[in-house]
Amino acid sequence: MSAATASTSTGAPPAPGDIAARARRFTIYEWGTQRVDPLEIVRGKGVYLYGSDGREYLDLNSLSMSMNIGHGDERVVRAVADQMTELACASPFMATPARADVGEMLAAVTPAGLTKAFFTNGGTDANEAAVRTARLVTGRRKILTRRRSYHGGSLGSLAASGDPRRWPVESGVTDVVRIPDPYAYRRALPGEDDAAFLARHLAELEEIVELEGPHTIAALLVEPITGSNGIIVPPDGWLAGLRALCDRYGILLVFDEVMSGFGRTGRWFACDHEGVAPDIMTVAKGITSGYVPLGACLLSDDVATAIDDLPFGSGLTYNAHVAALAAARAHLEIYRSDGLIENSATVGAHLLAGLRALAARHPSVGDVRGRGLFTVLELVHDPVTKVELFPLVGPTSPVADQVRAALVDAGVLASMRGPFLFANPPLIITTAQVDGALTALDAALTIADTATSAAGAAPPPHSTLPHPAPWRTR
Q1: Is the separation of the CB atoms in 182 and 232 below 8 Å?
Q2: What is the pLDDT of residues 301-312, one digit of tens each?
Q3: What is the DSSP string of 201-258?
Q4: Bridge pairing between strands 420-423 and 416-417
Q5: Fewest CB within a 10 Å sphere: which of 240, 356, 360, 378?
Q6: CB-based contacts of 79: which residues, under 8 Å, 6+ apart?
Q7: Angle between helices 340-361 and 322-337 (to 10 degrees)
Q8: Rounded to two decimals, what is the model's pTM?
Q9: Maximum CA pair distance of the chain?
């Protein structure tokens, strides 16, 4: 019996909307209010998801920028099933073939010197482990992170993020120092080229380090290419500049490649575009495409040696889970056998060219950025002032809702967060499928254009959040 025809507790097939109604009644949805109308999804195959009504949707955001190899790959399903038949679970203190295999396979594809993997349940706890390890090794407390960043949803990882989602849980005093982003679209001075912008930006970072006190800073934690906060692609030389800065002051360099890793940018990892190796690197998402949750905190030889005789302060019951590692082993083989890294680069270039063509036709598109199949349109009210068309935080714009609805009606599931309209499909996508998505985006952007200065619309209100009322009244 398929999920689409599965019976309810009464034995009758679910009526349209029943799955969503029960999910709303008995479960909590993340990152927002519970006034949600979730899409009922019952099946996935390739680049497509299928609704309970049989409708087909192109998954243009790879779920949460994670479904790299596509939905329903039988090779992964079989690998997990075979593993669970043989050994369904093991203690994280044990050695298993899957653990040894994946550790060795990761060492072969990650930047030079990253030879030790600590397996976690996802990217959030991988970043937590990275921060704990940096503090353990250096004896320092402060962590430098980008203003526009996201490192996970747990208390520690969220506090280390620049993302506004941290606001409700952020403590008043932290050991996190935020640094500016290499966001040339919004931060470059008039007439400033990439080289001049980069030099000014790196000088600003060095001043922050000196004023904070290098002896207090354990690590610089960055996404080499920002993910959910706008896919900010830095100018060439930025990662090398960070490496030199950290080396100069004895600070550990940590790359969060949770979103950008495993071929998403057309290379194994985003840092490979500059050939810069960090001291610690975190991965998740594409390591298993979410078939089974898994993350990893990868340590350089020097860091791994430093903790040999120190109690390692990280661990969870389900770390190094054999089912997840079986999925990762299958994935690492598929990336190579199916040429997915190369396809990401080739089809990504086609996608980026198509998005730039859309930008030339639509006044709502202020900037197009990306590498490989990691791309975004930044939507603006006016191309001169660069006022965001839809604020990142605050009340939802009715026009934004119309843009989302138009894409769903066209059979495309895209993610739009504030002014950022993402296009991050599975790495198996073809140019023909990209062209279909571009057609849907073209129609949706026509709706977005109605909210711009070109259409005579007033600028959107400044990003605000309503003052929260007490959750309980007497």
Answers
A1: yes
A2: 999 999 998 888
A3: HHHHHHHHHHHH-GGGEEEEEE-SS--TTT--PPPTTHHHHHHHHHHHHTPEEEEE-T
A4: antiparallel
A5: 360
A6: 326, 327, 329, 330
A7: 80
A8: 0.90
A9: 68
